[in-house]
C-alpha cells in the first residue's frame, strides 16, 4: 500500500506546480547550478542545412537502390544465356568468329583464339587445340576437348562449365585454370578457386596454386602444390602409378607442411604405406583433437575429413574477392 508521503511525491512528479515537499525543494536547490540554461546555450537550427542533409540522405539512398538493382539486373543478365546461342570467337589470329553448338574450333599451331564463354567468362585457346561446344544454356555449358591447351577464366556458380576429355571430365568450380589435354593424360593447373577431376574410377579436387593430372586407367591424380619441389611431385606421381617403396620414401623425405593435403589424399586412396604417410603428416600438421594418425591410416573417413578441414587450404572462389573476373576482357 502507498502511504501519504509517497502519494505526495508521485503527485509532485506529475505536476510540479502542486504544493512542494521541503525535502524535494532542498534537492532542487542543490541541483539548480547544473540546470540547462537555454539563453546561455541556444540551439541553432539552420533550416536550409537540415533540408540539405535530408536531400543528401535521400540521394545516397536512391544511389544505393540504383546500384543494388543494377547489380541484380546485371547478374540475371550475365547468367541468362539462350539455349544453343553461339559463342563469340575473337583475336587477330582467330580462324572463325563464332562457335556453334555441335561446332568445332580447331586452332592451327601458329595461331591463338579468344572465346567468350557465354557471358560468364573467357577462354584463351592455344594453337594445336581442337575443342567442340556440346551444349550451352544459362549457367550450364559443356565442351569436348580432344587435344591442346586452354586458359579458362570463369565467374559463375560451381559446375557451370565442364570439359569432356579423353581421360575424364574437368569440372569448373567458378575459377581460373589452365588445362592441357593429350590422348592419354590431361594436366590441370588451378589459379583461383577449385576444379574437380573425375572419371569412372573416382574424383579429385584441385585447389588454387596446385596441379593435378588424370589418366584413363587411374583415379584422378592427387593434388600437388606448384611450390613443391620436382622430386616430391615426381615421387607422388610414381607412387600413384606403382606404389613402390622407393617413391614412398622419397615422398616422406621431401614432404613439407604445405604437402599434407597430398599425403592425406594418398592415404584416402589406400596407397601402400598409409601408416607411414599418416605418421609423417602428423609431424608436419598435427591432426585436430579427437583424431589420430592411426585412425586415418586404418581408413576412418570421418577422421580423415576432419584432418583435411583443419588444413589452411585456399578458399573457394569468392564472389567479392574475385570480382574482377566478372568484368569483360577490356575492363580487367
In short:
With 332 residues, the chain is an alpha+beta fold. It is 33% helix and 26% strand.
Remind me, CATH topology of the largest domain? Jelly Rolls
* Global mean pLDDT: 85
Point out poorly predicted stretches: none
Q: What is the CATH-assigned architecture of the largest domain?
A: Sandwich
The beta-strand count equals 15
The main sheet comes to:
15 strands, mixed
Overview of the molecule:
- The chain has 332 residues and is an alpha+beta fold.
- It folds into 2 domains: 83-209 and 314-332, Jelly Rolls; 225-313.
- It has helices at residues 4-14, 22-31, 47-78, 230-242, 245-254, 260-268, 274-284, 293-297, 301-309; strands at 87-90, 98-99, 104-107, 113-117, 121-125, 129-137, 140-154, 161-165, 168-172, 176-181, 186-192, 194-199, 202-207, 210-214, 224-225.
- Strand 6 (129-137) and strand 7 (140-154) form a beta hairpin.
- Helix 4 (230-242) runs antiparallel to helix 5 and helix 6 runs antiparallel to helix 7 (274-284).
- The radius of gyration is 34 Å and the shape is flat.
- It starts with a helix and ends in a 23-residue tail after the last helix.
Amino acid at each position: 500500500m502507498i502511504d501519504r508521503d509517497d502519494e505526495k511525491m508521485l503527485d509532485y512528479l506529475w505536476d510540479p506546480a502542486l504544493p512542494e515537499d521541503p525535502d524535494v525543494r532542498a534537492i532542487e536547490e542543490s541541483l539548480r547550478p547544473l540546470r540547462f540554461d537555454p539563453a546561455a546555450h541556444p540551439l541553432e537550427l539552420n533550416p536550409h542545412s537540415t533540408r540539405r542533409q535530408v536531400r543528401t540522405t535521400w540521394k545516397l539512398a536512391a544511389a544505393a537502390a540504383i546500384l543494388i538493382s543494377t547489380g541484380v539486373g546485371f547478374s540475371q543478365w550475365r547468367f541468362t544465356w539462350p539455349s544453343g546461342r553461339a559463342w563469340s570467337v575473337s583475336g587477330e589470329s582467330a580462324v572463325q568468329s563464332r562457335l556453334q553448338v555441335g561446332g568445332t574450333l580447331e586452332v592451327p599451331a601458329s595461331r591463338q583464339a579468344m572465346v567468350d564463354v557465354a557471358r560468364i567468362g573467357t577462354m584463351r585457346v592455344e594453337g594445336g587445340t581442337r575443342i567442340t561446344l556440346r551444349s550451352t544454356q544459362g549457367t550450364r555449358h559443356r565442351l569436348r576437348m580432344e587435344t591442346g591447351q586452354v586458359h579458362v577464366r570463369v565467374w559463375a556458380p560451381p559446375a557451370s562449365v565442364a570439359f569432356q576429355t579423353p581421360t575424364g571430365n574437368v569440372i569448373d568450380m567458378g575459377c581460373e585454370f589452365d588445362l592441357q589435354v593429350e590422348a592419354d593424360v590431361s594436366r590441370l593447373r588451378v589459379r583461383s578457386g577449385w576444379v574437380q577431376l573425375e572419371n569412372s574410377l573416382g574424383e579429385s579436387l584441385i585447389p588454387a596454386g596446385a596441379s593435378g593430372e588424370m589418366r584413363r586407367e587411374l583415379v584422378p591424380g592427387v593434388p600437388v602444390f606448384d611450390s613443391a619441389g620436382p622430386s616430391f611431385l615426381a615421387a607422388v606421381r610414381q607412387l600413384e602409378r606403382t606404389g613402390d617403396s622407393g617413391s614412398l620414401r622419397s615422398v616422406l623425405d621431401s614432404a613439407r607442411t604445405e604437402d599434407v593435403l597430398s599425403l592425406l589424399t594418398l592415404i584416402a586412396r589406400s596407397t601402400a604405406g598409409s601408416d607411414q604417410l599418416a605418421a609423417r603428416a602428423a609431424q608436419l600438421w598435427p591432426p585436430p583433437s579427437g583424431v589420430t594418425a592411426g585412425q586415418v591410416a586404418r581408413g576412418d573417413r570421418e577422421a580423415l575429413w576432419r584432418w583435411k578441414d583443419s588444413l589452411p587450404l585456399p578458399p573457394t572462389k569468392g564472389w567479392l574477392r574475385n570480382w574482377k573476373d566478372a568484368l569483360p576482357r577490356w575492363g580487367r
